[in-house]
Design a protein that fits this description.
By secondary structure, the chain is of the alpha/beta class. Helix content is about 40%, strand content about 15%.
Length: about 210
């Protein structure tokens, strides 16, 4: 417990420091901040994390994180049920929703194809995307993965898997620079990229 006057303090700081992007100094600030809060506020904080881990589930249709078997987006009759936007993870869903420019559904892959990291097509939720495309209920699939080599590889793989079905396959416009992740794009740029989407085949001609 060298450097720490309290074992409890040390354990809390180590837990925070184990989070992505959180170093020991930031972890220390966060823990000391929590110690200054009212007990009920810290209790609420802890309860929210415990409930998230124990009760959160994945939507049976789109694979996003949900409170119920079918997420509130998929179950919303006001959404355009025939349009499906394919994204890497929940962060991209949040980013696109924040643009208020898209009213269709989503399909969360859970990652992107990356042989260097040992991630292949079978590690992603691609098969059930193909099932959705084959159902006849989907009229357009928007490929909205990050503009990286892995993202482009995954887009092309999906295109090859679903291109035989009678639906439009589009890609978000390249307003987002190559190598950018969707979650870091500003809302205006991302919104325009979705609204100005183009047939995916055009991107293959570049």
């Amino acid at each position: 417990m060298e450097g720490f006057p309290s074992k409890l303090l040390e354990e809390a700081i180590n837990q925070f420091a184990g989070l992505p992007g959180i170093g020991k100094k930031t972890a220390t600030r966060l823990v000391l901040h929590l110690l200054k809060q009212e007990k009920h506020e810290v209790d609420n904080f802890g309860t929210a994390l415990i409930r998230l881990r124990n009760e959160a589930q994945y939507c049976s249709r789109c694979n996003t994180i949900s409170d119920t078997p079918l997420c509130h987006i998929c179950s919303d009759a006001g959404r355009e049920q025939a349009i499906v936007c394919v994204v890497e993870d929940i962060r991209d869903v949040i980013a696109i929703e924040n643009t208020h420019q898209y009213r269709g559904l989503y399909h969360v892959l859970g990652g992107k194809i990356s042989p260097m990291e040992g991630v292949g097509p079978s590690d992603l939720f691609i098969d059930n995307l193909v099932e959705r495309a084959a159902s006849g209920e989907v009229k357009e699939v928007i490929l909205a993965l990050s503009t990286t080599m892995e993202g482009d590889t995954t887009n092309f793989y999906i295109y090859r898997k679903i291109s035989a079905y009678p639906l439009n396959i589009t890609a978000i416009a390249r307003g987002i620079a190559f190598g950018d992740e969707l979650e870091y794009a500003d809302e205006v740029t991302l919104g325009r990229s979705i609204l100005n989407r183009t047939p995916y085949e055009k991107s293959l001609a570049r």
